[in-house]
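Need tokens for this chain, all 156 residues.
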Amino acid sequence: MLFAFNPAGGVAGPRGVVSFDPEGNLYSTAYQGGTSNAGGVFRLNRKNNIVRAIDFTLQDGYNPTAGVLVSQTSGKIYGTNSSGPGLTIDGTVFEIGKDGKLTVLYTFCQQPNCADGYGPYAPLTSHSGNVYGAAEFGGAGFTGFGGNGVVFEITP
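Here are the structure tokens for all 156 residues:
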């Protein structure tokens, strides 16, 4: 075991894939905890000390479930929140810069009838500088809760 989570440490409920940066630090997401109990991104350094990289708020999107993707070239971190912003179930795609700044790149369910999908629970991957993922709900044939889902591309 590398690390055991302690709710007093600020993050709890790790979920999703883990990724490493070029320096060997491990990153992933915690579904809960942080200053707003909305989850966050954590880093486990090479000495197995945990550092909170980002605490989410209801305005940013919240409850990350899929882990993060660390760009080996830019050092930026990409991930999804399964909910938000606000008290919605839409979800977001976010980027954390090397300076620690959080940017919401996309909020789901912006197109009529949620044609762009919502509920991004799957891990992200990258190819040729773009980020790809899947959202479980919405998409073609969406007529209310549910839908068939979508695969999406983000060009940072």
